[in-house]
Amino acid sequence: MIVKGAGQEFWRGIPAISQVFKPDTQPESYVPDAATHDMRMYAPFTETVASRPLWISPQRNMWCDILLATSAGLVNRHYHPHEVFAYTISGQWSYLEHDWVATRGDFVYESPGEGHTLVAHEHEEAMRVLFIVKGPLIWLDRNGHADGYFDVHDYIAMCRTHYEAVGLGAAYVDGLFR
Questions:
Q1: Could you read off the pLDDT of 139-158 as tens digits, one per residue?
Q2: Tens-digit pLDDT profile for residues 62-94
Q3: SS3 sequence, the chain?
Q4: Global pTM?
């Protein structure tokens, strides 16, 4: 139904749905300024890369974050037993194992079981990438053999420690659980 006389925003006269959520549904998660420049929001992931959690599902071992590197950076070698989605907001990044370099606007789908070494390139813009991570990261040694893991529970602990240290409180991260 198109309402006439509402200007360019023809939808202004359309009423909102009265029953937004089905029974037992949690409310949406709204995170303003997701790719913020406020460094307090980014928990150090490695010595050169940090992560801002946007959404976390402890039950499904999943999270969505903005991965940030303000200069050349490295996330250790790893593989994912589940798929991962990435959308580049700014900067440049790649995997040492591939010949592409992702820049602003690029999308990457990582197949389950793919091993790689994520690197952030030197660039006039900080690397900011939206990642949706399903399942753990399996750390790999120099020869590609598993030598540890990092799952949603490690991610939560990392974020809680950081948020407590910067004065936002460890419980900040709990508001992102869905």
A1: 999 999 999 999 999 999 99
A2: 999 999 999 999 999 999 999 999 999 999 999
A3: CCCCCCCCCHHHHCCCCCCCCCCCCCCCCCCCCCCCCCHHHCEECCCCCEEEEEEEECCCCEEEEEEEECCCEEEEEEECCCCEEEEEEECCEEECCCCCCECCCCEEEECCCCEEEEEECCCCCCEEEEEEEECCEEEECCCCCEEEEECHHHHHHHHHHHHHHCCCCHHHHHHHEC
A4: 0.91
